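Problem statement: downstream parser choked on a complex file, so we are re-checking the raw output for the zinc ion run. The parser issue turned out to be on our end (a line-ending mismatch), but while we're here, posting the original submission so the record is complete.
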Amino acid sequence: MMRWRGGEQSGNLEDRRRMSPRGVAVGGGAMLLIMVLALVFGIDPQQLNQVIDQGGGAGGGAAVEERELTPEEIEQRDFTATVLRFTERVWDEQLPSIGRRYDPPKMVLFSQQVRTGCGVAPSAVGPFYCPMDRTVYLDPTFFEELQQKLGGSKAEFSQAYVIAHEVGHHVQNLLGYSDLVNQKRQTLPAEEFNKWSVRLELQADYLAGVWAHYGQREFNFIEPGDVESAITSANAIGDDRLQKRSTGFTSPENYTHGTSEQRVRWFTEGLKTGDLGRLEEIFRVPYERL
Ligand SMILES: [Zn+2]
């Protein structure tokens, strides 16, 4: 069982679910009531609109209602903040071994949709990292789906893997690998670019494995046989969500990822070795041997 309760939490997590557009229906009703009261009591509706607008901002301009988080949501937040803190501690310690300094990403929890430096994103895109604002975005209902599919300790490990993979994309951004692949997107035909996108994804999985190598000592979260089903499920849910998505929003998670087998293999390599010296290898090894 994963040991995370009571652990140190990151200060870089922002929870925007309290300002969720989920409240719009309630907000609409409440607003109608206010308008009626305003008419009855002779208050200027223009003034009221200003007050209501000030409460908004998180949901793309729609009226947004602030609400209390449920106990489950608070648990998701504590879990995420604890895992995020542990990524900060590991990368703070490990990046200097390859001559780099770690500057941690921000992380935002949201529900339904979120405004990001990469555009407005619906939940359907799944967890993603936006390099423009150096932020990981996650709608924790993704975690609920993992919980339903896996249950218990596998689900917790799987959730930690999802966070570590996205933080892995941030590490790639700091190390220049994201830029390298981005340049290829502009110069290569789609099919060739896809291969570089696969390398980037497998390297993020390797980085998640390196993190878990150090995390295992602290969290003891991996049980024999868990890794394959946990990673495969996390990625299957991500792919299902992508198929449902209906906007033009793109993130690295929208591209080709490599097979489940490749992803488990590179994660496991990182987990076994904890060796950052092998990052280059994932970009150099012949594509067929990945
Ligand atoms: Zn990814």
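For whoever reads this later: Confidence is low (pLDDT under 50) at residues 22-61.
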